Amino acid sequence: MSQPGHESEADMKARRGRNIALALGLVLFVILIFVVTLVRLGGNVATTPPV
Amino acid sequence: MAMATAHSTTRAPARWQDYVQLLKPRVMSLVVFTALTGLVCAGHRVNPILGAVAILCIAVGAGASGALNMWYDADIDAKMRRTRGRPVPAGRVQGADALALGIVLSIFSVMLMGMALNWLAAGLLAFTIFFYAVVYTIWLKRWTAQNIVIGGLAGALPPVIGWAAASGAAPLNAWLLCAIIFMWTPPHFWALSLYTSEDYKSAGVPMMPVVAGAASTRRQILIYSVLFLPFAIAPAFTGLGGAAYLGVAVAGGLVFLLLAWRLACSHAGDAVGQRNDDGLYDVRAGAKDARNLFAFSILYLSLLFATLLGEHLLGAAPLDLLK
What we know:
The complex is a heterodimer. Chain A is mainly α. Chain A is built from one helix and no strands. Chain B is mainly alpha-helical. Chain B folds into two domains: about 15-170, Tetracycline Repressor, domain 2 (Orthogonal Bundle); about 170-323. Helices cover about 70% and strands about 0% of the residues of chain B. Chain B has helices at about 15-20, 25-40, 50-70, 75, 95-115, 120-140, 145-155, 160-165, 170-195, 195-205, 210, 215-235, 245-265, 290-315. In chain B, α3 runs antiparallel to α8, α6 runs antiparallel to α8 (about 160-165) and α13 (about 245-265) packs antiparallel against α14 (about 290-315). Chain B is flat and about 55 Å long.
């Protein structure tokens, strides 16, 4: 592995690719949790008897 | 214990594709397919988004098992032609990174399954990951020639997880799907190991051909194939499979038995040191019978589950021949 500050072009390109993949993964995970919450919440509201 | 191989300044940097490779995408695709079959066969109406989340959790859980396996088995993988190009033995990813990825994805997949679907499915998923990573990889694989017989349970559980995710239960028919894959595993893997046994021998893995010899392995493949056939046909008797399934199971089962018989009568695995490359399908002439059974076993299992999936999606009536 290269030392920080002495990264080659290939190192930087690979790191940029990893960072983008990680960011995309985290964004997708947040969206997934949001959608699952909506679906679960919607289902529970629909099955709750009216007061 | 497995450790990453030495790194050097000339080593290629880890790309995101290397981390995807840690998740064993090819194995993941088979897991997704069988889990989807279990989910659909459960017959419960599942919200499509939650159904997709369940399949995603099972896929990620399987991937996490793969990453944990590649972390622990890096020393073995480095000695085998088929696996020496994997990210950890090749030095592109550090073993600790593979371990961290496996643990994080295991926790995320199990927790999401529990919160989005139900905790029975989450518990079964957690057990499957534990069984593959700890019981099979760390314990059985290096200890006994029965490693893939017992360890096969990990690969057989996804349809049960899918069924449990959809219905919150794991009835007998779900376990029948599990039993089909469980009984299919020994002839499938031993056929492969008959023409890759040199790799396993050099890595010190006690696969059946290495420990008991090729002739004994061929005999055991035939025995397991005979035992496997009733399980493959059984769904037509339990209200799970229909007429199409019965036809595919019987016709394919007979071909499976024929190939197992031809393999038992062959000398596959006897000759050593003539293998040319790393391919799973390109083998020396004497091992063609082993390769044929290995290739057909994948086709047969895929056909069985595809037929079940198709019947349930199209609403075809199950036979239930016991009634």
